[in-house]
Amino acid sequence: MNRYGPPGTGKSHLAKAVATEADSTFFSVSSSDLVSKWQGESEKLVKQLFEMAREASPAIIFIDEVDSLAGSRSDGENESTRRIKTEFLVQMDGVKKGGANARVLVLGATNTPWSLDAGIRRRFEKRIYIPLPDAEARTTMFKINLGQTPHSLSESDQRELGQETEGFSGADIHIAVKAALFEPVRIAQQAKYFTEDKDGFLTPVRGDEPPCPYCPMKLSGDKSKYAKCEKCGAVRISLMDVEPSKLRVPDISMADFKLALASTNPSVAPSELKAFEDWTKNFGQDA
Fold it and tell me: Does the pTM of the predicted model rise above 0.70?
């Protein structure tokens, strides 16, 4: 079975999930694990991998970026690379002909399925397209990435984020959430005013102005004087002067996500998606 699709859609995580659900021994390898500088050693490594999987059956062999190991054969490639591909083809045929005793599933993942060798493509009987997440899936991903982090986002806010991130992969959403999580830290670093609550905790105020028009700092015009506003509890102080135990970072807000998304772009171009869709029509199948 070969899973293909844009980068960041969770193809590798799906393989691990399959192994967990199937209660099977999981072998995760890449091309670097199977390629050796010694003559004939690479073919032995491929053979040993499949023999170990058969002994530990039921087992799953997962090959990440399988195109780097089993790309299209050409006249210009060296003999060693050709022998590795040949051994890989032979071993995959052995898995298919092993019957019920084999119980070995070979999973591959690639971002460029069109570069696979035709023989390898044929041996992957199932070629499943893992597309970019839809709006509902993106909303769920925002919730998962936020986890237990304190935030003020409502259910409708999270759905709005899912709607506004068309074309984002799961990895892109993870990056956007990380950027949003840093926004309160940036606010604290840049804040000139902090509001003090009854317990003495200080929360940074967005912007350069005091939070209310009655603040003595604003009325007096004295920018250096430490004064506390009895109306809103604001004090003029820098982050370096705040005791760490007294600092209260504000919860993540929708405004933080808006700022994060303004500087985060999808990593997959529309032209790349078109290539995946065309290949799926010819050789693959939708998930």
Answer: yes
